Amino acid sequence: xITTKQRAVLRGLANTIDPVMQIGKEGLTENSLKxxxxxxxxxxxxxxxVLKNSDEDVRGLAQKLQKQTGCDIVQxxxxxxxxxxxxxxxxxxxxxx
Length: 97
Description:
The protein is an alpha+beta fold and 97 residues long. The protein has one domain (4-84): YhbY-like (Translation Initiation Factor IF3). It has helices at residues 4-14, 30-42, 58-69, and strands spanning 19-23, 45-50, 72-77, 80-84. Strand 3 and strand 4 form a beta hairpin.
């Protein structure tokens, strides 16, 4: 769990990045969860865009994602999510928050 100050730092870092994943009408599938886990190992902070044809609410999707991957939801604005989870890799330059 991250604090509000840590969340503010992560929001500032997320301003300059573009979404690296899209979630469509299928929602969170096994394949998308595997891809998200891989993204967390490659980068600790990234954005997810929820497409307009998705049947799920963005906040509900964020809660599901948080439960299934153990990530922290940094920000939820419109149809975009900013998520963070510390990488388990060794010799990885971690985000200092």
